C-alpha cells in the first residue's frame, strides 16, 4: 500500500512540478515553434532528467522531485505530448506551470510555493518592524509634546 503523503511532501511535489514544468515549457515551446516533437522515448528521457534542473534546491527537494517524477512520469508525458497532437485541445499551447500542476493533481488550487511563503513571511516581518518603529516614534512624539506642555 502507498504511504500517506504529508502536507510538506505535497507542497514539495507541487514545487518540483512547477520548476520542472517551467523548464519543460521552454523546451516544448521551442519544439512547437520549429514544428517538431519528441519521440516517446526522448520525451520520457527529458522528463527523467528534470530533477537535474539547476533551479531545484538540492537535498530534500531533489529527493521529492525524483519521487514526484516516479509518481507522475506517464501523466506528465501524456500531458506534454498533447502539445503536438492536432486533435487535442492543448495542441500548440504553452505549458503554464501552475495550471499544468493543478491539472496533474500535484498542486491544489490555492497552493503557495515555498518562495511565495518566504516572500510573504519576509513582508510580514518587514511590516511588523515598520509598525514597531512607527509606534516608537509616535510614543516619543507624545512624550516630547507632554514634556513641553508641562513646562507651560
Topology:
Blueprint lengths: L6 H27 L6 H9 L11 H22 L15 H8 L9 H38 L1
Helix pairs in contact: 1-3, 1-4, 2-3
Give an overview in words.
68% of the residues lie in helices and 0% in strands. It is mainly α.
List keywords for this structure.
single chain, 152 residues, mainly alpha, 68% helix
Give the termini separation.
Answer: 82 Å
Number of helices: 5
How would you sum up the major sheet? Answer: none
Radius of gyration: 24 Å
Strand content: under 5%
The percentage helix is 55-70%
> Low-confidence parts, pLDDT < 50 over ≥5 residues?
none
Number of strands: 0
Overall pLDDT level: 82
Sum up the overall morphology in one term: elongated
Instruction: Name the helix and strand elements from N-terminus to C-terminus, one letter apiece.
Output: HHHHH
Structural class assignment: mainly alpha
Short précis:
The chain is built from five helices and no strands. With 152 residues, it is mostly helical.
Amino acid at each position: 500500500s502507498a504511504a500517506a503523503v504529508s502536507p510538506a511532501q505535497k507542497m514539495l511535489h507541487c514545487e518540483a512540478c512547477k520548476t520542472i514544468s517551467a523548464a519543460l515549457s521552454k523546451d516544448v515551446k521551442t519544439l512547437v515553434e520549429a514544428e517538431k516533437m519528441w519521440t516517446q522515448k526522448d520525451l520520457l528521457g527529458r522528463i527523467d532528467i528534470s530533477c537535474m534542473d539547476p533551479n531545484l534546491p538540492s537535498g530534500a527537494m531533489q529527493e521529492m522531485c525524483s519521487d514526484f517524477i516516479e509518481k507522475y512520469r506517464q501523466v506528465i508525458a501524456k500531458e506534454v505530448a498533447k502539445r503536438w497532437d492536432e486533435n487535442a485541445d492543448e495542441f500548440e499551447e504553452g505549458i503554464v506551470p501552475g495550471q499544468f500542476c493543478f491539472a496533474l493533481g500535484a498542486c491544489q488550487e490555492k497552493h503557495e510555493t515555498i518562495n511565495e511563503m518566504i516572500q510573504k513571511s519576509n513582508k510580514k516581518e518587514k511590516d511588523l518592524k515598520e509598525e514597531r518603529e512607527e509606534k516608537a516614534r509616535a510614543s516619543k512624539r507624545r512624550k516630547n509634546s507632554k514634556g513641553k506642555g508641562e513646562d507651560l
